Amino acid sequence: MNTALWSTWLFLFTTSGYVFIALFGLLSKRKIKFEVKYIPKFLGIGFIGIIIYDLWTNFGFWLSYSQLGFYPQTIFGLMTVFVGGLPFMLWHILSFSIILTIILIPIIHFKSLSKISYDIILKPNEKIYILSATLILITASIITAII
To answer: Into how many domains does the chain fold?
Structure first.
């Protein structure tokens, strides 16, 4: 079997998980402002995003590696991967909570003191640069996995 092909599938699951998180954040951005009363919503949206991302990528891991014979192609093989992924999910939740505390709370605090008076908005050309860099990295990853 071609290991690189299944590694590429796993990469696509991971990348699509990132895209989902970005879209989820974009949609929730319209409903949440940088204010203290919205901190629980930030936490909730972050936790939901982490759980969905980890379930999706664990499914991709099982799909990829069951094709290579590492896990049975049954519901029990899938459950084995999900249980094995729990420590990583807990680590993602813990690291998200730490980053939220380190970054978001000071931003909210300074904004409440009127030290920060604007929201960060990307210009159209900046969005193109970010999208171009992302597409180049995705393409390079797929090409190296196939070669």
So the answer is: 1
Give the separation between CA 132 and CA 124, rounded to whole angstroms: 12
Closest C-alpha among 11, 103, 95 to residue 50: 95
Whether 131 is covered by a domain: the verdict is no
Q: Which two tokens stand for residue 65?
A: 């590696």
Domain that holds residue 68: 3-122
- Model-level pTM greater than 0.85? no
Asked if residue 81 is part of any domain, the answer here is yes
Single out the residue of 47, 3, 49 nearest to residue 26, CA to CA: 49
Task: Catalogue the E-assigned strands of the chain.
Answer: none
pLDDT, tens digit (0-9, with 9 covering 90-100), for 103-139: 777 777 777 776 655 556 667 777 777 777 777 766 7
Q: Which of 24, 101, 86, 7 is nearest to 54 (CA)?
A: 86
